[in-house]
């Protein structure tokens, strides 16, 4: 089931077919929001069905944006070809190719903002780090820090109730039908993503300093996967040394899976406001001839 105005699509990403969902505004888009889901989910994460206010795809199109939610490599259509998924750097290459193909066909000349959740945030950072051509407008991420709050042995995709608690937090944070409606959103986690999660401290030391666009970091009140004390946040922001602007936001009444909860609309509005800020900055830069 999809929300009104949301449709499935496939994209040829340099020989790898990726699936996903797209929504488009009635007028020319202000920008393209490329949304990348986390581990064990798929593109449907951004089109939650438990309540009309939850879908990023619906809200984004309503506010003038084209929203492209991709099934990352190893999910959706590409799962049969890439059952183990791809390493982070290869995912970034594939996703860049998909974005280039989509924008060339549908939105030439329109800026792109990368929005990533959890593992999708890591991919968004990696995509931005080695972007070729005009830079993306910015990177918005949620559910991703730098130092895990759990031991490596707890990163297994099969950790029972403990895994549920970390992914969701208090159940009252979500509309009542969330878990019934999410059956089509949940997907098998490709094996290569487990090692990439465990190695993020090392990988991030290489990836984050190469991000040269504005970054917004969102942490849910009940985020349980990542350490978020002042020292951890200072380290994370410090690693983004080439980003011209870094914003850190803490979202109340939200669990790790922000975009499926009651706080989803607030989060999505803030993310789209960040896109507006990035668009304004790009306009000012063009006026100055930068």
From TrEMBL:
Positions the record marks as coiled coil are none
Quote the Pfam families the UniProt record gives: Abhydrolase_6
Alphabetic keyword roster? Hydrolase
This protein's superkingdom?
Bacteria
Which GO terms label this protein's molecular function in UniProt? hydrolase activity
Q: Where is the AB hydrolase-1 domain?
A: 33-258
InterPro entries (UniProt xref): AB_hydrolase_1, AB_hydrolase_fold
What is this protein's name?
A: Alpha/beta hydrolase
Biological source species:
Streptomyces sp. R28
Source species taxonomy: Bacteria, Bacillati, Actinomycetota, Actinomycetes, Kitasatosporales
């Amino acid at each position: 089931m999809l929300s009104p105005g949301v449709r499935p699509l496939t994209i040829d990403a340099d020989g790898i077919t990726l699936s996903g969902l797209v929504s488009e505004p009635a007028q020319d888009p202000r920008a393209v929001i490329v949304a990348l889901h986390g581990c064990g989910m798929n593109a449907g994460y951004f089109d939650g069905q438990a309540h009309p206010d939850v879908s990023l795809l619906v809200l984004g199109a309503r506010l003038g944006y084209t929203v492209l939610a991709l099934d990352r490599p190893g999910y959706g259509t590409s799962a049969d070809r890439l059952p183990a998924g791809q390493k982070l750097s290869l995912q970034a290459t594939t996703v860049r190719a998909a974005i280039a193909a989509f924008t060339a066909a549908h939105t030439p000349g329109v800026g792109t903002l990368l929005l990533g959740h959890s593992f999708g945030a890591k991919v968004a950072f990696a995509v931005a780090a080695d972007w070729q051509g005009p830079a993306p407008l910015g990177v918005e991420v949620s559910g991703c820090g730098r130092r895990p709050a759990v031991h490596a042995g707890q990163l297994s995709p099969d950790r029972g109730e403990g895994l549920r608690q970390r992914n969701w937090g208090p159940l009252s944070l979500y509309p009542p039908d969330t878990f019934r409606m999410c059956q089509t959103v949940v997907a098998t986690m490709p094996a290569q993503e487990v090692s990439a999660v465990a190695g993020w401290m090392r990988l991030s030391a290489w990836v984050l300093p190469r991000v040269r666009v504005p970054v917004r970091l969102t942490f849910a009140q009940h985020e349980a996967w990542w350490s978020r004390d002042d020292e951890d946040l200072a380290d994370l922001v410090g690693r983004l040394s080439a980003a011209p602007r870094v914003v850190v936001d803490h979202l109340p009444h939200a669990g790790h899976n922000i975009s499926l909860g009651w706080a989803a609309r607030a989060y999505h509005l803030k993310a789209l406001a960040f896109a507006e800020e990035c668009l304004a900055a790009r306009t000012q830069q063009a006026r100055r001839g930068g």
